[in-house]
Amino acid sequence: MTPGAADGGAAGGAASHLSRLRSRHLLSAADLTAEEVLLILDTAGAMREVGTRPIKKVPALRGKTVVNLFFEPSTRTRTSFEIAEKRLSADALNISAATSSLVKGETLADTARNLEAMAPDIIVVRHQASGACHMLADICSSRIVNAGDGMHEHPTQALLDLLTIRDHKSTFAGLKVAIVGDLLHSRVMRSNVVLLTMLGADVWVCGPPTMMPAGIGRLGVTATSSLDAAVDGADVIMMLRIQLERMSGHFFPSLREYHELFGLSRARLARARPDVIVMHPGPLNRGVEIASDVADGPYSVILEQVSNGVALRMAVLYLIAGVTEGVD
Ligand code: CP
Fold first, then answer.
1. How far is the CA of 282 from the centre of ligand 1 (A)?
2. Residues 6+ apart with CB under 8 A from 216
3. pLDDT value, residue 314
């Protein structure tokens, strides 16, 4: 497989002959090179085929143990990691904060050290603190995969978003991608900005001024609080969830007003290109950041993102584990 070939070499670099990732962990999108991103996307493309078989299983991670350590709620990420692990024949187990000894006061570091004493190969971590996965990578010898850390990054979400975009668009270079909503609290936005700018997309971020992260322009994006400007001629519109659970103050007067100014309606969508795709990482606040008839409408690829999550996470686990065979 030739990573760059899948994008005609236009997606941020020449064709590569990489077969593995440099890092033992996947902590941040910023740790990846363009070649590695294309390797992951191409590997995910191959993994998709496994999901079409009558017996959806390959032996690639047979004998490997993967722990899914989730300290925050999750539907899509946790489930797709577990399905991915099972399709790769890994021994997968799930630990949630509510049913672990964390409720008795055990620290994250002690929890990780105790899990590690049972010799897992990979630990997939979601945590409310930015940097939690980096901390675990420093103290654990297991390979760590970031499944979302606080307001920092969600690299596998951004990678599955890229896989979905690539299914619909011939190249990332020059593509106008509008990322709209609660920018301040969004780890999905941060990981997507890193990867999309790396591959040459024209990235616009749009949200209320109160939710515009300081210095965002330095990330190579166009920042605006005009939804019309962001959506005008967009090839891809990625709507973000309002993260009420991370807000301690008032960032906008009311949800109704937020929808008026920053919600994606059919009327607003008409400003985009005729072949626009509409994305959302989920879960949706219907009627707030996105109207139901847009979320369920013909331009929406939201459920394709969810499907792609399984193949993408199979690819990440396979490459992180460092195996080179067993996908037959
Ligand atoms: N996109 C995403 O991270 O969804 P979950 O919180 O359900 O995992």
1. 6
2. 183, 205, 223
3. 98
Q: Is the pLDDT of residue 304 over 80?
A: yes
Q: Could you give the angle at the alpha carbon of 265 between the alpha carbons of 264 and 270, nearest 5°? A: 100
Give nearest CA residue, ligand 1 atom 6.
74
Give the residue whose CA is nearest to atom 3 of ligand 1. 77
Closest CA to ligand 1's atom 5 = 74
Q: Ligand 1 centre from 121 Cα, in Å?
A: 23
For the chain, what percent of residues have pLDDT higher than 90? 84
Q: What is the dihedral of CA 109, 62, 3, 27, to 10 degrees?
A: 0
Q: Of the candidates 305, 31, 299, which has an alpha carbon nearest to the alpha carbon of residue 161?
A: 305
What distance in Å separates the CA atoms of residue 174 and residue 193, rounded to the nearest whole number? 14
- Residue ranges and CATH numbers for the domains of the chain are 17-153+308-320 (3.40.50.1370), 155-306 (3.40.50.1370)
At 177 the three-state DSSP class reads strand
Amino acid at 150: G
Phi, psi for residue 108 in degrees, rounded to 5: -60, -45
For 25-80, write each residue's pLDDT tens digit.
999 999 999 999 999 999 999 999 999 999 999 999 999 999 999 999 999 999 99
What residue's CA is closest to ligand 1, atom 1? 281
Q: Which of 128, 157, 182 to mutate to test the pocket of ligand 1 (most atoms within 8 A of CB)?
A: 157
- The dihedrals phi and psi of 34, each to the nearest 5 degrees, come to -60, -40
**Cβ of 71: how many Cβ atoms within 10 Å?**
22
